[in-house]
Fold these 4 entries.
Entry 1:
Amino acid sequence: MRPGLSLPFRLAIAGLAFGAAGAAWSRDTVKIAFIGPLTGSNSAHGLGGRNAADLAVKLHNADPKSKYDYQLVALDDECKPNVGVQVATKVATDKSIAAVIPHYCSAVAIATVDVYRNFGIPVVIWAAVLPEIIYGQKTKEMHRVSATSIRQNQVAAQFLTGVQKYKTWAAVYDTTDYGKSMYKYFSEALAKNGGQMLGSFGVGADQKDFNSELTKIKELNPEVIYFGGLTPLAVRMVKQMDKLGIKAQFQGTSGIVGEAFINGAGPLSEGTVAMYDNPPVEKLPGGKFFVEQYAKAKYGEPFEAYGPYAYSATILVMDTIEKAGPDRKKINEELGKVKDHDSIVGKITFDDYGQNINPTTTKYVVQDGKWIDWEDSEYASGKRKLKGR
């Protein structure tokens, strides 16, 4: 297999004008679909992922070695399971689409598994971290380049109890499959590491008012509030915590990592901690190349936390089609063999279920309006302190 387009050696082709190079060759067109929340409260992440996937397609099409000309079909799942099922069905039944790179929201991804399996369409998930999406049943169709929520929560519990010496928590989590899963795995890891959960509160994914839950949490007086949910809910949470004078340390999940949370919460985001799958993109192999090319493409939105995964998933799908041809069955067979595939998020290797086994978990903290690798932050050096430390 030729090397992945995610690595810096692609700089040689990046100078080609997007689109113009493709006109020089007569190649069959292969459609691949991208699915994510392109509208609604989580659209920042969906648009960033779509742009990253689009960049991957443009770079691939500019490569004279590419056998096919790829067309990205982007669809909106609105981060709603019922909409996701409709969109997944539309893609899966369209025989002109060879493969799909779907879903930021775990609640949508878990709802669509049977659709993809029943129609045999190859899937490489770019974000959704709920373990059961991949491990709930063994299929030939389902694959994921991002990590699962289990490891993220284990690292979080170990870090906050063992290093930061926090003892007591309260939890707020959304009642989607994502939020419940995040809370489940964190609370299990917390108990194993000696932390105490004083109280937990499930809330609706679109809930606006948390006065009841936060008033009870204020009475419990935990050192840390664990939040299991996505960015829009987290922004509302920290603002209402501030109004109620709650001084607890705010701990999020990978679902809030990205510029959207900081833009929404403003100065209240300072000191928030969360776990994410990889180090900052600039530290990743080929990460500088990705950042430079994304900037050159002048997209209107940032690529957000999972943009590099959307880019890597799209590259992997196209590289697999280059080898297997645009046949769904053959693509699935080839994806099942993926081992040490070069990407900007590191080597991609799928286990027997289709889960990438190589992602590493990095501790992040918000410092001066940016998500910073904890080890590079002033919090790690002791110059700044988390709340209560």
Entry 2:
Amino acid sequence: MDRKNLDQIITESLAIEAEDAKEAGKLGYMARALVQATMPHKATTEKQFIRRNGTFELSITALSRDGLPFGSIPRLLLSWMTTEAVYTRSPVLELGPTLSAFMAELGLGRRGGTRGDITRFRNQATRLFSSAIYCRYTEKDRDQGKGFNLVNNFNLWWTPKKPDQYPLWKSSVTLGTDFFNEIIERPVPVDMLALRALKRSPMALDIYFWLTYRMSYLSKDTVIPWPLLQMQFGADYGEGAEGLRNFRKKFLARLADVKIIYEKVKVFPVEKGLLLKPSPPHVAKRPVPMLPGSRKGVKGGGCEAAIAALLPSSDISLGLETFEKAKKVAPRLDVYALEGEWRMWIARTGKMPDNPDGAFIGFCRMKYKQGGGN
């Protein structure tokens, strides 16, 4: 790494230390499945990409002619999608009023042209939205697998040539049912400022995601062999001894970048692999809960919202099937807005339901009978 890039990472890491990751906009999440194994680092002509992590195998398949997502942009976008889904508890995500505004939220530049950030972002976004994932665990006595589409549908109304122009309709993406349930049930907490500091390298982002997740449950010293690390992080470096040497050199360089940001992580290269010692995760495993609904609204939600965010109601997780049932008992009503009202009611009364899913459906039915459907 040249001195200029090193100085930039150090400067950004100091900025991260000065901020609390739990403040609005700083605490983020990443999909757990894509922390255990990752997307391609570079462009590939293949339509399927496979990564392995011990008994876990993840394959990403391109469902359109655009090809597979690769590089830092889909990783940043995927983290944003996971974060937004966790905070809003909604599979329908709005992608900002303009292309320029949304890219700024991800910490990306807004240069136009064939090779500019705007063109690359739109290309990677459509690649990511048009991908399917298959996860598989293989052990001696068990074989288990699960497949899902990342996105059910998406609508991008942005104009790359006019990134600041407000479109007639809002751009949005609707997450696949299984993927939505996966990311809201078991997300990995991350620091969004760390992602911005490491965004120049997809491998650095992968290492950061993996380490903060691994340290959330590591209980004893563990050595991960170099060949296994290459299977997980370095499919682009070729096979054999030379490929392993090239991977190790690149991995250690990017690990050094991550350790500037994640200072308390205890990881050391040894002859056979990477030694991991129990360390605190970069972001607490159970962060301060936030009020579900639009997280942009939480920031100025007032005292009532702040109190509600600290109560157990914000720990309640509703399944996507619950929202589908709620739509049937309360047609023409916004069930996601009703969810916010329901959680606020729990916060005010202090009555925690034994069956949250059933209680929420009952709340929606009551609101509809009270005249909401007229």
Entry 3:
Amino acid sequence: MDKRFFKLFDLTEEQAIAVLDTSPDQVGEHDSRYIAASHLVNFSTAQSIQALIRALQQTDPSLQNRIVRRKAIETLGRLQVSEAIPFIRPALAERDKFTVENAVWAIGEIGTQDPNLLNEITALLNTPEQNYRVIIQTLAKLDHQPALAAIRPFIDDREPSVAGTAIAAVCRLTGETSQIDRVTALLQHPNVMVRRLAIQDLIDARHYDAIGEIARCPVSLVFRLRGIRSLAAAGMAEGKLSFLDIQPHLEQCLRDHPTDLALVNHYERPPELASLIHDLFDTDFGRCYLAAKELLQTHAQTAPEALLAAYRETACADYGAHFHVVKLLGWLRHAPAYDLFVEALHNRQPQFQKSRAAAAIALGELGDRRAVDALKTCLETRVWDLKYAALMALQQLGDATGAQLASQDQDWLVKAKAAQLLP
């Protein structure tokens, strides 16, 4: 599990426990039991686990306390605390559907083969207004074959993400693949959330043939990379894929050029430059990539200065726009952006992590060999996509020493790439 984003709160374990143990009506205005329950994911100690269980057993009916209980359940799931299952199990019968959802998910993370407990979860598929997607995912993950009859009707659910996960579950439980192309088709759905969830369903179904389509799906490359990496690991473990099979798709994804994506959005009429810059801030990355493509194709001469101005004004603080501006200036080979790229390369703020790999790719595009040393320092991090992107950039800059440094890397994809580059 990637835990880079967990340690965002300046609390010790003892402080977090003290806040979480505070009665809901006694919490100070600068304290948050929710934040405390979130922060304890960093401490898998007996005292933290017991504090989370106590929070779960706090029955104050207020909305704030219900939210804290949901987070406590989630944290126990992330910590995979098996002894917490007897305390989580009663939550399956609660009226609050979000608490039920977290309980199902947490049990899936912890794992169980208790048929009675799994049958309780299966019965939730007949309960109105539940998160059927999470329930189906959990039952398939725990390989509960008796749930098949209850899962199959959801294959034709009106909600695409529910139908997709039901198809993936049937595929996972039976090996039946007759409907899996329907899930692949969801990678082109107009709704960005449906596209993201389809990637997870294809991972769950271990549908290796979808790797190329995932690489072209117009969502954030974080979701695409996760899909490709997960399927690659499973496929190579089964002997069905090799590194060479997935490498083109992986590197296409890391390069992240908008013309390599199968875009689902379109413009009714050519937008103005200012409007395209504005679209780089959209939360639907499909729209961002459409704007990026248009900027590259029709505004290549005027875009660099407009992008730099947007960066100085607002994009420097918006992690999505920051990413797109860095990538675009790299594709435009805008030499004055060199220092911006180096700054982004070394930005360790968690929310800007994908901009680091983007900056590596941009430096490779720029072709300035001054970047070699800065790129080589990235090979000492623990961020696999940054290291891989740095190797791609170093290759583009004609440097082979980076491959030697990464030849024994702990990450299997980085190591495979480095081995390929060695003389």
Entry 4:
Amino acid sequence: MLKKDCFNFAFIGAGSTTFTLRLVSDILHEGDFIKGGELRLVDIDEIALNDVYEALTKMIVTSGRKDFKVTKHIDFEEALPGVDFLYFTFVTGSYPSWKKDIDICVKHGVLQSVGDTIGPGGIIRTIRNVPVVYNIAKRMEKVAPEAWIINYSNPEGALCLAIEKYTSMKTFGLCHGTPDTVRSLALNVYKTDPSKLDYGAAGINHLTWITKLEIDGVDVYPNLRKLLDETGYANQEPISSQLFDIFGLYPAPGDRHVGEFFPYYLKQDVLEEKDYRWKNIDFDEMDAWRNGSLENVKKLKSGEIGFEEFGTSGETSTHFIRALATGKITVEMANVINRGYIENISDGVIVEVPVFVDKLGLHPQKIGKLPDAVAAKCDILGREYNLAVRSAVECDRTLALQAMMLDPLCANCKYPDLLLDDLIKAYIDVLPDKWREFY
């Protein structure tokens, strides 16, 4: 148990327009048990770092939380000593690298509705991002061995696997996707307050499967199929609804993500015939989301909005921190290495399951068995992550190619080996030197 009420937080990738300000706002809202501390912002992009630093400083002033100190750092090592919670919110190569990933994949015939978790986009992100989390975690073993690493970076499962498997640091990975899906089902399908819809879920990140839906202790899962049609929700998320019909469980977190795990949905002719909303990633829409976040940064800096107007994020990291610090138990979804929690998925595979959290740490719930087909799908994807992470740690092209050959979306690619080579060559300058032996 963390016997204190002031904490040191570090954010790796603090220039993130998506996460940093929202996560800090959550921390500032927890004044009953987080009395103060230090917020250490780390980013190699000095312009983005300075913008977030200025915005965050203004947010703290308007919150009245004078008990927080904010510092900014280019070198991550400066931010590690004495840290209690370290957040990963980065991507190697920043936002432009995402567009580069997609462009290279399109040239090889692979479409990706997101490209940050699975597919060749997820594999190259693993190869780029794992060395960063590994190096930071290994340094933390020496200067902050009792700290917790909270991962929000993608590929969520792969990075959590790397930290857990190759370092001694305590970690958990969080994603709002499954809770958001259940919230949407509550509001739009069951027409009820989301707090009344109790759920269970398990799987892998961005492909979790809802195992339980109850309202006031009554099983309402049998009504889901009918209600999806009656409310028109099946038309809004047609891929998820079809997967529900095929596999018997409803997947999360929506078509944009789950469609990528099944190559049949991301073929050009199928996308045209079915007119699915989430085709190859639409960066006009992504830019609009990102520009909205950048606008909030500007408004905070100018004083147009403050702490109250900014609000909270809906993320769950402070729920974990509260439980670890106070012992108040919470139950949340998290990414952890499977150790018998899902019986028919291999041990050693990274999974996303509900966990109890208390002053002693995380206690993943035992799920039992998932339906055979669901478990088989998650298992092979988890094994792909194992190969990709090993490839990133060992700088091994053969392991990376094995991951590509197992990957579902690479089935749409004529020559996966050439695609892999083009992706690695595009980032050779930011990869460990050992990769140069192959290129």
